Amino acid sequence: MPSRKTLKIATFNVNGIRTRLPHLLQWLAKEQPDVACLQELKAADDGFPVDEIHGAGYGALWVGQRAWNGVAVLTRDADPVEIRRALPGDRADEQSRYLEVAAHGVIVACLYLPNGNPQPGPKFDYKLHWFERLIGHAQTLYDSGHPVVLAGDFNVVPTDFDIYDPKHWRKDALLQPESREAFERLLQQGWLDALRVKHPEERIYTFWDYFRQHWQRDAGLRIDHLLLNEQAQPRLVDAGVDRWVRGLEKASDHAPTWVTLEREAARVAKPVAKRAAKRTPVRTAKKAKRVTRANA
Hints:
Blueprint: E1 6-13, H1 21-31, E2 35-39, H2 50-55, E3 58-63, E4 71-76, E5 81-84, E6 98-103, E7 106-112, H3 122-142, E8 148-153, H4 177-187, E9 192-193, H5 194-198, E10 224-228, E11 236-241, E12 257-262
Parallel strand pairs: 1-2, 7-8
Antiparallel strand pairs: 1-12, 2-4, 3-4, 5-6, 6-7, 8-10, 9-10, 11-12
Helix pairs in contact: 3-4
């Protein structure tokens, strides 16, 4: 359970929110994240279990899509404030994969990056195009002057250390050089990979597929990430994975992954130097439409 002095922000690919709703509610009750980013809702907007989420003590925003995709952000004892509900850069993109909110003094971007399989092919091309859009928008977020967390299922295994056995996955889109290079370019903007920083020597995983006893053998992959910008980095306290959720009966193939941040920065962040004068502000909460429980 997070301390009142810290803020727990988590990401969880639920792999079907209706199917896994009991697991989700159990996790929320036990771990009590302050912000929970969900992916793969696999439900239309009107199929989102808003009453159950409110009953658990959480406000919610969501972008659904029937049978596929879908993202949501839940906030404990508060309503998240919407900033945007689609990744900029392609107005023709109809897939529900991005939701950006202000919550508890932090900007949180919940994302579900395309898987990209099979590759090569149009699905992999879409993955790389989506990644380029993310990199472009992420720079704006990084330079916003606000603490920002990019949280979600990135569908990228950053290095061979982040997978139990890379040789059997070499043809998978999650390990392709183009995928890894895009993730590295994102980090080079200055984002901190919180889970890896807190566990530099540990083979820590967030995903175990349903085949060949991978969960039972701890044959996993690290594809769920929480990245912190310069303003958020000094507030980092801890990061981890709630593995017990993956062990539940008929669980999602992902486990919730999280960071804890100091609610207020205890140290002064390093100056952004000349770049600060060129910041492009993110839409603020005052400009964003507030979605309350009454009209959810």
